[in-house]
Amino acid sequence: MGKEAVEIASVEVKQLLEMLNAALSEEWLAYYQYWIGARLMEGPMRSEIEPELLIHANEELAHAVLVVDRIIQLDGMPVINPVEWTKFARCKYEAPTDPYVEVILEQNLRGERCAIKRYEEIANYTVGKDHATYQMAVAILEDELEHEHDIEDWIRDLTRMKEDWKKIRM
Length: 170
Hints:
- There is one protein chain.
- This protein is mostly helical.
- The chain is built from six helices and no strands.
- The mean pLDDT is 94.
């Protein structure tokens, strides 16, 4: 970290680096969960949802880039071994063993809600103390909130579609 950055940061950098490495690990797991889930997904609206999940995957990857850059700026060492990701991550990877679209969406929704908590914690920890990390956390938090909203909308659409289909069959 630069001399001026050290002087203006009033956070425990070691603790912040731990938080950021956990977030980095979670971003990699989220990326893969979105990416593989989109590829394996089956069921109604798959063709509409798959490309959007791939966009979400790429956004998670972009978050990982932001986080790793910040770790390096803080003179930290990012998690370099994928085996460590599950050890650092609080947001867990859920393998898409059931490829049904709603199951995949529910798994991703749990991941997004966990990520929202992670970035809220980082933002709260750095607000007024480390402006660069705070701004990064807030920007990522906004994306995670948007992802949660998208997934909730798809689940609501699928539920409505199933209800309408039941009415037609009666």
